[in-house]
Amino acid sequence: MSTIFGVDLGTTYTKCARVRPLDGEVEIYAVDHAPGRPDDHLHTLRSAVSLTLDRRGDRIAHVGRGAMAASEAWSDGAPPMRYVEESKLWIGEGLADHDPDAPPWIFDGHGWEYSAEDIGALVLKKMRKVVEARGTVMGEVVITHPQAFNDPRRKATAQAAQLAELVVVDTLTEPNAAALAFLGADPAPGKYMVFDLGGGTLDVTVAEIAADRFTVLGNAGTKRGGRDFDRAIFAWLVDRYREAWPNFEDRFLDDRNTRRWYQIAEDAKVELNDPAVPDKRIQVVCKSRKYDGMKSTHFLTRAEFLDRTQELVDDCLRCADEALRWSGVTWEGLTSIVCVGGSSRLVHVREALAARSGRPLRTDLDPDVAVVQGAALHAHRLATRRASVSLVSSAGIPVPIEVPTESSAGRVGRAVIGNALPNGLGIKAWSASRREWVVANLLAKGTPLPCRVSVADKFVTNQDDVETLDVELWEGERPELKRCNRVGTATLRGIPAGKAGPVVVTVEADVNLERRLIVEAFGKRTEAIIEYDPLMVMSEDELTRRREFLRLVEVV
């Protein structure tokens, strides 16, 4: 049986895991090491890239903690360098020229405009390189993504893996992956909330576990994460430094100074997370031509840290409330709350969650790797099912795949898993009452999967003898177009010639258990055919072009 790996491409850290075939337990790969300490193996790869050139002028990409070290060691006269991190925040978002921190990240040294998918691919290439150095071929993967990702962003995440020359067997939401990891720990039957607060996003899933059945009841997600807590401290640092040096301007904070200050902010967050630490002495230095070495020392109290991040905590609670609303479960109806994601370690977040819910918090899963554990378990489940179909004896009898029944993989493998639609699905239609284009709902968020819906509606052609009709598919919960995302277009061809006016079209949407969407549309004439074009971030030609370029970049 071939191995399918689980991959968690994170905002701040990336992880990789597989299920060991002998005992059915999850193995988390060591994929990075502390700078200057090659024997200090770590299970998390920093999702950071430093782009540069070697002495021969060849393209180089330092990835992981080594990228941070390379950027810090850079000096005038060395080959040009550009540092990029948190690229996941931009995956599938396209270009945003109004934001200087957004892609494309232009690096003249490589003669290339890097997209968020390119940077994600370089991180995955480094991970694959480390894994395969241990003698294991890494080809097929299940890759996770935040709950809040819409359909194009989910596909863009898969395309980042394809750029790294990995075969994506399936994608999985991060909270659902964490829930599978929890299922592997053999919990008691009940209704559970999985609260996944990572570096860049918060994802919440409510699921029911009963005997060997695991059912997703509802979910919610938001762009809030641990880095937002860092930003709150960073903003405080900038304010305090400006008080000490009134002529200071934000533009004096170049990339390296900004990164250093963010690291100071992150370290302060970790220290002040301890209730026994009343305050933190922080010294910041702006090393620029105008403010070379000018220091500023301040004390950030834990009370002020909590006050400055209270709005973030409130946002987290609102997201949890939304997940409950979509699932139809109350706080009192929960058995417990499973906390995962590195930022779920924040004590004041846990205290607020416990106070709001009145339910016990489960913190026995390793929050840093719970998502990748679940991805590996799902990957093994898929590999086992595929092998049970393809593996036969010489007599043509299927050969069962033996997995220890009391292992994590055994428990997840025998479970019946029920998923739910993470976002509503609708079609673009003209509202006569509102006199504007709206999204007419086909399937509501939280609809149990698999599901199928068929709707007949009138579409109006505005010209005579129109031969094609486009039906746009949109994802979202609100009727306003600006609150939804287009996921594809169904084109009906072969419409009979005639005057402009209404055409009755039946739209059928079929979503399977893995959330893959199949769309069909039918006109009154049998010669009319449908072509569904899902919205992709990159075309196949663009995917090939970028893949070939990335082969020219040496990942170290």
β-sheet strand percentage: 25-35%
Query: Which topology of the largest domain does CATH recognise?
Result: Nucleotidyltransferase, domain 5
Uncertain runs are 388-405, 525-532
CATH class assignment of the largest domain: Alpha Beta
Q: Which structural category fits the helices and strands?
A: alpha+beta
Major β-sheet, in short? 6 strands, mixed
Whole-Å distance between the termini? 31 Å
Task: Write a compact overview of the structure shown.
The protein has 556 residues and is of the alpha+beta class. 29% of the residues lie in helices and 32% in strands.
Question: How does this model look, in words?
Answer:
The protein is of the alpha+beta class. The chain has three domains: 4-175, ATPase, nucleotide binding domain (Nucleotidyltransferase, domain 5, 2-Layer Sandwich), CATH 3.30.420.40; 186-364, Nucleotidyltransferase, domain 5 (2-Layer Sandwich); 425-536, Substrate Binding Domain Of DNAk, Chain A, domain 1 (Sandwich). Helices cover 29% and strands 32% of the residues. The chain contains twelve helices and 30 strands. Strands 1, 2, 3, 6, 12 and 13 form a six-stranded mixed beta sheet that branches. The protein has a six-stranded mixed beta sheet with strand order 20-19-14-15-16-21. Helix 4 (174-184) packs across helix 10 and helix 5 (226-244) crosses helix 6. The two termini are 31 Å apart. The model is unreliable at 388-405 and 525-532 (pLDDT under 50).
